[in-house]
């Protein structure tokens, strides 16, 4: 029986952590929590549904988490005490059965240790602020289902979309098309400056300038609408310079690919 007591003491010492420190912390936390109103995760979800401000929601969520932690500490303390009792019963049953044959009718059932209490993280995570992560779906290289990752410190749920596995050739084609689109947009906004006047230099404007130059006499001038919509008189030389600069800038855009 003395050996059984030693085994029980050893098992209890191994199973149960430093309860004194936990009890002291729990007592302090309990006193602080008594001063705060009780709030559940359902209450937090209600605030979210009613579109309360994010700061108010997060404050309520932090309070609900703190209260859940406090309840968990209390449940853990009860579990520790139960472990001590059950472990003693286990050791007594094991010691009793050790002296009996395996098929003896006097064998007694060995009780199972109680399950350690756990916090259901899904309850609090349902209240986290949600952020949709931007993913360039046309350039992904791995096929993955939609998923959610949780930052339990920041109380944020990051939502990722489903992705497809694209080949290098597909990605290269997408990048090429995007480059061409960007180039077209840059060309559409192109301007050139001649003698302090800013001319539109997109392809349509270049065509208009070229057509006008074909019919203009030397040393003549014509009315022209600038990029800022001002109507001015420009000489053939000035218009030629603007058309030439526009063509050179467009060429630079194409060579830049």
Approximate shape: elongated
| Main sheet attributes: strand count, strand direction, barrel closure | 3 strands, mixed
Task: Please give the order of strands in the largest beta sheet.
Answer: 1-3-2
Please tally the helical runs, counting DSSP H or I stretches of 4 or more residues.
8
Compute the gyration radius: what is it?
39 Å
Q: Round the mean pLDDT to the nearest integer and report it.
A: 87
Q: Uncertain regions: pLDDT < 50 for 5+ in a row?
A: 1-17
Listing every helix as H and every strand as E from the N terminus to the C terminus, the arrangement reads HHHHHEEEHEEHEEH
Which percent band covers the strand fraction? 5-15%
Taking the alpha carbons of the first and last residues, their distance comes to 88 Å
User: Strand pairing plus helix content: what structural class?
Assistant: alpha+beta
Fraction in helix: 55-70%
Please tell me the total number of domains.
3
* Strand elements, count: 7
């Amino acid at each position: 029986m003395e050996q059984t007591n030693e085994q029980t003491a050893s098992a209890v010492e191994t199973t149960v952590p430093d309860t004194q420190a936990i009890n002291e912390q729990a007592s302090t936390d309990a006193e602080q929590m008594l001063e705060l109103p009780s709030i559940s995760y359902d209450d937090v979800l209600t605030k979210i549904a009613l579109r309360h401000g994010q700061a108010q929601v997060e404050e309520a969520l932090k309070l609900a988490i703190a209260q859940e932690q406090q309840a968990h500490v209390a449940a853990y303390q009860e579990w520790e005490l139960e472990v001590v009792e059950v472990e003693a019963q286990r050791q007594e049953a094991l010691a009793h059965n050790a002296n009996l044959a395996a098929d003896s009718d006097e064998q007694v059932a060995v009780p199972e240790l109680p399950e350690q209490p756990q916090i259901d993280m899904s309850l609090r995570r349902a209240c986290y602020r949600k952020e949709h992560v931007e993913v360039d779906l046309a350039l992904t290289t791995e096929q993955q289902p939609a998923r959610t990752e949780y930052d339990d410190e920041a109380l944020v749920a990051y939502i990722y979309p489903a992705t497809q596995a694209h080949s290098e050739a597909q990605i290269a084609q997408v990048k090429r098309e995007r480059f061409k689109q960007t180039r077209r947009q840059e060309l559409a906004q192109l301007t050139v400056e001649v003698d302090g006047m800013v001319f539109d230099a997109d392809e349509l404007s270049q065509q208009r300038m070229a057509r006008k130059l074909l019919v203009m006499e030397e040393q003549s001038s014509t009315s022209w609408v600038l990029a800022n919509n001002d109507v001015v008189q420009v000489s053939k030389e000035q218009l030629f310079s603007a058309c030439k600069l526009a063509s050179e800038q467009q060429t630079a855009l194409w060579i830049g690919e």
